[in-house]
């Protein structure tokens, strides 16, 4: 695959620099209310030990910023690109990026796929993205899916996040095959029948030690997005999807997604949120998986299908996000985006401001009244070879931008600068 390099981010940065004096619509984000600790690696979002989630939370933070029209800090982006190994893979965290990765470096598919989605969105790193995609394809299992670590059995979550990386970079998952099996083939092996005593349409994470598939809400939310070919950032479906589970001898991936969405809706109906039990303790609200379920429901059946859990998150999730950090704020931003909810007023919380405050200040923020204009600007950039490309757009913006601000990219899953 040839990863196309789109010039829009560089062009927009040029607009911001050249026209800053005449364009108050673009401004540096306010000083963070809380900064990373002195011991946190420079450029990293969050202050907790990044050993197990550094790349993941950084990827989600950058992706959420791009989704909301924020131009991320170049230091933050560099932190992420510096984490890549020479073979293209990412580990959760490498304390010394200058040191070569070796057999003991815990590279994995999840962090690699998340980094691909983030770096494709912010743009300008086609070589990094292409290398990461090459590694992911090289470790695909014979059933068409992926496990968390290379060589481990496929699971629904890992396969889905890699599908998201493929589709985000305009790679058709159906054409990424191993022994004739695609990622979608692998996902369908985790889909359960509709009968309540057999799984009620959910996805299993993977077979248990006895080879049995058990319903798993986390895997189900991931499986819905994977089966639909969606990434971490998803749009609401244009039309309502099926509201009930329908058995079929061999369900299509869309059918499996509909069945799984029905399972999520039924599970959420009790409390308005998902729950998790930890080591014999009482069930606790699962904020992160509830946010993922909101995205899945909206992507499969429209924003209305996610209204109840979304309302619960708006009312209850702010404290959780403040305690959990950048990845949590990003998950809530993804839920807001999928349902057309303002992430800057999410139950009274400005998720964008809170996320930005967990790391280096971003380069700039798109003016609120220009954000909606960016969709058309992005679609015009698909043909990089056009003589009227992005740099022509820069010139036009510099001429007309004085006094009225500039168009800044809000989100682009399928292109990159």
Mean pLDDT: 82
- Which H/E pattern describes the elements? HHEHHHHHHHEEHHHHEHH
Low-confidence stretches: 1-38, 369-417
How many helical stretches?
A: 15
Largest sheet at a glance?
Answer: 2 strands, antiparallel
Shape: globular
Task: Please tally the β strands and state the result.
Answer: 4
Helix content class: 40-55%
Amino- and carboxy-terminal Cα gap: 17 Å
Biggest sheet, spatial arrangement of strands = 1-4
Radius of gyration: 21 Å
Structural class: mainly alpha
Strand residue percentage:
under 5%
Describe what you observe in this structure:
With 417 residues, the chain is an all-alpha fold. The protein contains 15 helices and four strands. It has a two-stranded antiparallel sheet with strand order 1-4. It has a two-stranded antiparallel sheet with strand order 2-3. Helix 1 (8-18) packs parallel to helix 15 and helix 8 (217-228) packs parallel to helix 10. It is globular.
List the helices and strands and how they pair.
Layout: H1 8-18, H2 54-67, E1 70-71, H3 74-82, H4 109-122, H5 126-138, H6 156-168, H7 183-188, H8 217-228, H9 253-269, E2 274-276, E3 284-286, H10 287-301, H11 307-324, H12 326-339, H13 351-356, E4 364-365, H14 374-379, H15 390-400
Antiparallel strand pairs: 1-4, 2-3
